[in-house]
Write a structure and sequence with these properties.
Helices cover 14% and strands 50% of the residues. The chain has 157 residues and is mainly beta. An 8-stranded antiparallel beta barrel has the order 1-3-4-5-6-7-8-9. Strand 8 and strand 9 form a beta hairpin.
């Protein structure tokens, strides 16, 4: 009987000491990590529930910015790679912007800027190894009006 009790005690001590390995990245995190090029971006300005303005965001980007890449790294930092046509040649080719994370059951991609701690929450509309479609909506009140800025962005690897 003593041998059985000693064996059970040894097993319970070993089980208590067993370390649990941290969970690795989710499939969504693996797909999100990488260098992404913005290929489509459309914005909508909505004033008091009515579309006020529709903007082709890509048309507003200087040609030097069209080859930029958003580098979402596995360590959850993100950088902007200025590409070959550097808009800001006095800055490094790759500039750290902040951090990213997935939340809400991998349905939202959140960016936090290092410089201001500003947070942008994007709903993931579609995510594959080579394509990511995001939607964000920023709504605020100004002078008694509800103003919403909505955007749909498509990135490709």
């Amino acid at each position: 009987m003593k041998k059985i009790l000693l064996a059970l005690a040894a097993v319970s001590v070993l089980a208590a000491c067993k370390k649990t390995e941290p969970a690795g990245p989710s499939n969504a995190e693996k797909m999100v990590a990488g260098k992404w090029r913005l290929t489509y971006a459309k914005g909508f300005s909505i004033l008091d529930g009515k579309v006020d303005t529709t903007i082709n965001i890509l048309a507003t980007i200087d040609s030097c910015g069209l080859d930029d890449l958003t580098d979402l790294r596995a360590d959850h930092s993100y950088y902007i790679d200025q590409g070959d046509k550097m808009c800001f040649p006095f800055l490094p080719k790759e500039v750290r912007r902040g951090s990213w994370k997935l939340q809400n059951n991998d349905q939202e991609l959140v960016f936090t800027l290092d410089t201001s701690a500003q947070v942008t929450v994007n709903r993931i509309l579609k995510l594959t190894d080579t394509r990511m479609e995001l939607y964000n909506d920023n709504t605020y009140m100004q002078d008694g009006h509800t103003i919403s800025g909505k955007a749909i962005s498509v990135y490709e690897k």
